[in-house]
Design a protein that fits this description.
Structural Genomics Hypothetical 15.5 Kd Protein In mrcA-pckA Intergenic Region, Chain A, EC 5.4.99.-, nine-stranded mixed sheet, alpha+beta, Pseudouridine synthase, TruA/RsuA/RluB/E/F_N, Alpha-Beta Plaits, 237 residues, PsdUridine_synth_RsuA/RluA, single chain
Length: 237
C-alpha cells in the first residue's frame, strides 16, 4: 500500500496533510526517514512510525458501546445526537455504523463496526442471534406471561413474534425481568409487553449473541472488542 494512503486511512490527515508530515521528516519506515509519500509499505511486515508513534494498520473497527439514553442508533441525524457523534475523530474516520438499533431511550450494549459481513451475520434472521434485555415493567408480570412469550405473542399490527424466553426477576406493581429474543422489530420488547397489557419503563440490552456488555463501561463509554470477543462473534457465522 502507498504510504500516503496508509496514513490517510489510519486517520493521520488528508493526502495533502500526510505529504506535509513526510516533508517535515515526521515519518519513519523500518527506522529510516521516509522521503516519498508514494513509497509502498507492507502493512504486515514494515514498521511505520509517525512522530515516534507506531502505526498499526486495520481495515475494520469493532467497538462495544454502553449506549446512553437520549442518543439515537444512526450514523447521522439533523435533530438528535447519534452514537457516532459520541466517538472520537479517529474512530469516526473508519466510518463505523451501529449493528442493529436500540431505541432512543434504551440503554446498553451496542456494537459499532464498518464490517458489513459481520453485521449481516449478526442481524440475519436465519442466524438466530439471541439478544438479552433487562427491563423494568409497570404491572405484575406472571407465569402466564412467561408461557405466552414462549409461544410468541401477537403485536398490535397483527405480527406474530418468534418465541421469547422471559425470566421474572421480581414481580409486583413494578416488576423486573430479563427477556431473550431472536428478533429486533421496531420497539419489539415494548410492544410485546403492551400485548399483555403492561408497560416497559426502563430497557437495557445486556447481550447480543456471544457478546456481553462490559459493565465497567459507563453510559456513553466504548472500547474496542478484544480478539476473543470478536472471534466469539464471528464463530456465529
Amino acid at each position: 500500500m502507498r504510504l500516503d494512503k496508509l496514513l490517510s486511512n489510519m486517520g493521520f490527515g488528508s493526502r495533502k496533510e500526510v505529504k506535509i508530515l513526510v516533508k517535515s521528516k515526521a515519518v519513519e519506515v523500518n527506522g529510516l526517514v521516509a522521503k516519498e509519500v508514494s513509497m509502498h509499505v507492507d502493512t504486515d511486515a514494515d514498521e511505520v512510525l509517525v512522530l515516534g508513534e507506531k502505526v498499526v494498520y486495520a481495515e475494520f473497527i469493532y467497538l462495544m458501546m454502553n449506549k446512553p439514553p437520549g442518543v439515537i442508533s444512526a450514523t447521522e441525524d439533523k435533530h438528535d445526537k447519534t452514537v457516532i457523534d459520541i466517538l472520537d475523530p479517529l474512530a469516526q474516520h473508519f466510518k463505523p455504523f451501529p449493528v442493529g438499533r436500540l431505541d432512543k431511550d434504551t440503554e446498553g450494549l451496542l456494537i459499532l463496526t464498518n464490517d458489513g459481513h459481520l453485521t449481516h451475520q449478526l442481524l440475519s434472521p436465519k442466524k438466530h442471534v439471541p439478544k438479552l434485555y433487562f427491563a423494568v415493567i409497570e404491572g405484575i408480570v406472571t407465569e402466564d406471561d412467561v408461557m405466552k412469550f414462549k409461544e410468541g405473542v401477537t403485536l398490535e399490527d397483527g405480527y406474530f413474534t418468534k418465541p421469547g424466553e422471559l425470566t421474572i426477576l421480581s414481580s409486583g406493581e413494578i416488576s423486573e425481568i430479563e427477556l431473550s429474543i431472536m428478533e429486533g422489530k421496531f420497539h419489539q420488547v415494548k410492544r410485546m409487553f403492551a400485548s399483555v397489557g403492561k408497560k416497559v419503563t426502563y430497557l437495557k440490552r445486556l447481550r447480543m449473541g456471544a457478546l456481553q456488555l462490559d459493565e465497567t463501561l459507563e453510559l456513553g463509554d466504548y472500547r474496542h472488542l478484544t480478539a476473543e470477543e470478536l472471534e466469539a462473534l464471528q464463530q456465529k457465522e
